[in-house]
Amino acid sequence: MNPNAYIVLSSILFCLGLLGFLVRRNALVAFMSIELMLNAANLSFVTFANVHGNLDGQVAAFFVMVVAAAEVVVGLAIIMMIFRTRRSASVDDENLLRH
Amino acid sequence: MTPPTIEYGLIAPLVVLILAVVAAVIVEAFVPRHTRHRVQLGIAVISQLLALAFVTVGWNDRPGQAVMGALSIDGPTRMIWALLLVFGLLAVLLYGEKRIGGGSTAFAPQANAVPGSLAEREAIAARQENTEVFPLFSMALLGMLVLPAANDLLTMFVGLEILSLPLYVMCGLARRRRLLSQEAALKYFMLGALSSAFFLFGTALLYGYSGSFTLADVDASITRSTQALPLLLAGAGLVSVAMLFKVGAVPFHSWVPDVYTGAPTPVTAFMAICTKIAAFGAFLRVLFVALGGIRWDWQLLLAAVAVVTMVLGSLAGLVQDDVKRMLAYSSIANAGFILVAVVGAMATGTGLDAGRSGSVSGTLIYLTTYGLANTGAFAILTTVRQAGGEATSIDAWLGLARRRPALGAVMTLFLLSLAGIPLTGGFIGKLVAFTAAWQGGYGWLVLFAMAFALVTAAYYLRVVYVMYFAEPNTETDIVHPGWPTGIVITVCALGTLVLGLVPGFALDLFANAANFLR
């Protein structure tokens, strides 16, 4: 198996996630972009596990899924709290703390 | 198949903290509300004292790896654990302070109630207290202990997340100015999650390069192949970005002023020092144990980061008129000063040549002196109030030392220590840290650092000037602190003085704890 295609794909996914985080205003969409970046990392983990012929990378993918789930719990709680206070989830509206 | 071995003796402090978290969650469910605060504070303090006792008892044990090589319990790990537990104790005392807030803590009584709503007013009227911060605190501290001890990148990632997730929540729990606090939580969370993603992708690339997560295996792969593969450099870069984010170095600092200002002051005091200790500990381990072979690639880059961090932290701090925000910029500048010590890697792996002060001990001493002065300053910050809430604007601090000479003198001590004036701990910290970089051949960087240390001194001394030479602001209440904050201020002041006057014993202690296990 030639791993290059998978690595290129995962890099593209990672960059797409980063781009999404930087340009989207809605906190939920920005957060989804971060999840995309985590999944890009997962794809490289399993690809490299295949390349090296050991299971470490596949185990890592499971760790990432668990941590991502925990992050979703905390993140959605914070975004919900903000939304209930301000009726908006746009990251541009959060501008009380400025120089 | 053989069952995994777990060296409970080596990881006893971690086990104690895990049990404390579980106990605190159970207490939250079963203990009546009015006694909960006392019980939670007791559990947090006792568990940390117990963990500290385990660290001290095992101080001279042979360094070893624990839990199938996932954790490496060596000199730096034990030193960092001791520091984290001491500063954690100081921070949790600030969490427990009730007298300053007129019988309530710094945390929102009902964090899920919309600010200004009926539910919030009812919770305040019923004198509810948010005691969930204590299990969150212990959990964050647990993550901080795991992070610098982690011997492979995956464990490091898990430690990083255990540390970060509770901190995101705690940032949003301020009792007053809740909109600011919630905003701080959102900013910290979004950027923190982004930095985790960077760390993870970097880990994936390093795994692809070496076929293993273990730091020593990455090092072995670097020695085996002479050409620096793009995979290695990209992976090392991404992992470093995440670490630089956690310590708040430029250009990954944008969250620091906002989050430090918006978060409840006890939380700010906690993360200002403990997150820095844990992140710098892990960063040093990654740099020296895994990436020592390519140190010619990272040293100059980190030196550049240190320079811009010092420039921005010191110059932007000059124009702040809010003491809490000024301390946030001071924390950025200090991250730059610590990076100066990190860069002067004398001998990779240990960071120490025989008889010389190395990067690891220099960094840790600097963090200790900075932490003492910084925690003390934040503790005093909580006692200066207007209309019941903290008054962090510099106008509120006018003539503070004239009204309360003792408090003013202690605050002056902390600020002088932050500025690095001789006879305070801060001077020793700067001396040792900069010596490490000087001996590592980074004289120009040390000259830069000394110049910007003078600039930061200007803004610390401005606060001192305002406290002594301005007409007192009579609208400001300087509240008498309760025993927890009193203990914190006393310990920090004594520690700053002792480290400044008789540093010898501490320097020996730190120098002995500088060898990473490989």
Molecular structure report:
Chain A is mainly α and 99 residues long. Chain A has a single domain, classed as Helix Hairpins. Chain B is mainly α and 518 residues long. Chain B starts with 11 loop residues before the first helix and ends in a 6-residue tail after the last helix. In chain B, 70% of the residues lie in helices and 3% in strands. In chain B, the strands form two sheets. In chain B, strands 4-3-5 form a three-stranded antiparallel β-sheet. Chain B has one domain. In chain B, helix 14 packs antiparallel against helix 17, helix 14 packs antiparallel against helix 19 and helix 17 runs antiparallel to helix 18. Chain B has 20 helices and five strands. In chain B, a hairpin with a 2-residue loop joins strand 3 and strand 4. The interface between A and B is large, with 46 and 42 residues.
Break the fold down into its secondary structure elements and pairings.
The complex is a heterodimer of chains A (99) and B (518).
Chain A lengths: L3 H20 L3 H26 L3 H31 L13
Helix pairs in contact in A: 1-2, 2-3
Chain B lengths: L11 H19 L2 H25 L6 E3 L4 E3 L1 H22 L21 H8 L7 H17 L3 H19 L6 H33 L4 H10 L5 H18 L7 H8 L2 H26 L4 H24 L4 H21 L15 H25 E3 L2 E2 L9 H4 L1 H15 L5 H15 L3 H27 L7 E2 L4 H19 L2 H9 L6
Antiparallel strand pairs in B: 1-2, 3-4, 3-5
Helix pairs in contact in B: 1-2, 1-5, 2-3, 3-5, 3-11, 3-14, 3-19, 5-6, 5-11, 6-7, 6-11, 7-8, 7-9, 7-10, 8-11, 9-11, 10-11, 10-13, 11-14, 12-13, 12-18, 13-14, 13-17, 13-18, 14-16, 14-17, 14-19, 14-20, 16-18, 16-19, 17-18, 17-19
